[in-house]
TrEMBL record:
Family matches, as PANTHER family: ATP-DEPENDENT RNA HELICASE DEAD BOX FAMILY, ATP-DEPENDENT RNA HELICASE RHLE-RELATED
Residue ranges of every copy of the Helicase ATP-binding domain listed in the record: 80-280
Assigned keywords, A-Z: ATP-binding, Helicase, Hydrolase, Nucleotide-binding
Protein name: Superfamily II DNA/RNA helicase
Cell cycle among keywords: no
Q motif, short sequence motif: residues: 49-77
Organism: Paraburkholderia rhizosphaerae
Amino acid sequence: MTSSNTASPLNAIADAALGLDPQTAAQEREPHAAVTTEPADAAGAVEGPTFASLGLSAEIVSALIAAGYKAPTPVQQRAIPAGIAGRDLLVSSPTGSGKTAAFMLPAIERFAQLQRTQVQAPRDARDPARDPRGDRRTRRPQPVARPGLLVLTPTRELAMQVTTAASTYGKHLRRLRTVSILGGVAYGQQLMLLAKNPEILVATPGRLLDHLERGRIDLSELQMLVLDEADRMLDMGFIDDIETIVAATPASRQTMLFSATLDGKIGSLTGRLLKDPERIEIAQRIEQRANIAQTVHYVDDRDHKDRLLDHLLRDSGLDQAIVFTATKSDADQLAGRLADAGFQSAALHGDLPQGARNRTIRALRERRVRVLVATDVAARGIDIPGITHVFNYDLPKFAEDYVHRIGRTGRAGRSGIAVSLVHHAEQGALKRIERFVRAPLPVNVIEGFEPRKAPPAGGRGGFGGGRGRPGGGNGGRRFGGKPAGSGYGGGNGGSGNGGGRGWSGKSSGGGSREGYGASREGYGGSRDSGYGGSRDSYGGSRDGGYGARRGDGPRNPRRGS
């Protein structure tokens, strides 16, 4: 992906990067439809620091005014002046605080200063060594990109967000080209982008390292290095790649490291990468999110969880939903089972090729997908107003991720619903989340889906409080099934008379051939349509997810990140 200095149509991404409410930003954009060069203070009465007062040039301030922005966020107020001064930065700032602009604005300002003070010769992407005789038989060297700024991100979606933000902020500057190098994109296409010798390079670590090893990128002239969401990159196993990339950069570079936390592995990494950094910590603001109804439903096992999820997804008030799973394989399997049950579902995770991921997001925006099953990293940055519900099929590993997850609903002041399906063994993880958000999450029980083990004492009510479909125990509805008869297990090969349908199986009435655990068509069936869906299920891993082609994927999924 490449961005030029033309106006970006994706203002929403820049809104998120600056930490602004989309509805407010849209209202503020209307009076500034025409680009002006007036200082930020002239855009209206603003209390406190302005972008102009932080040392940003008129061209950059003009771009921000044109996008409708007036006041910097707290992390921007502290990071921008220090970044312009050339200081290394060590920043801990929560998602949504405007950290993308906190590192990109000072970096672009430094490019603007260079343009004002230097008469730059045209940047030649070719090797400077030339045959003085001009021998035409001499083989022309391969183009080599020598960026001045490198931004490393853990995911492709975040890299594209940063690329678009850079285009928005620097659209009035000359000779400022931004290119993103991501896994899942054809090498030939990326070589053409690198041949332009961009000033700014945004990349995921694995694919960048591939190009470094092939000699397509030279970091010996790098002036600034940014590690965005460094803690995520370490969690994803990129530490060795990062060390190799950093070793290819000059020691004189300026380094900015942004992370949700500054302890653990990050602490040891910063000692090796940063020189006397300016340490900036913005406390996580725990919002009560009154517009999002948050509830917990306890489940006995996966079968109970799946039946309850099926029931909740059929709520008439649901427009679109995201279901979060712990693993990529779980996302594939659950999306396939939901599709078999008649839901417009798709999976989204880091192992899908970029083309498949783009098609899935586009289908979600176009409302051709109603239920997105995703992992934490893949769903970051999704901002779609139609998402009314978020379901935690599995609780997140880190409590902060709970806040990120439920933030996918209730966007722009709308109301939203967040439901966590919790096994009793996950009680510790639930308590960590409640401590993090500083509030207990109310427990809800739907008639017909009661857990066999009584939930811990707590509040009831919230989403789903009405009567469930008759099922007895937690018989209920499984994916694609009819309401079960009385008694727990009725309808999935149990001993009762209310057989109903099993997982894509036929009516059993208690028989062993097509019920729960059957070897052919029931839950866990190995041949036709058991638990896990068919080979080519919608969103399954075999065909690369929603509308994917089998040949889309990178050769090394981890490096493709």
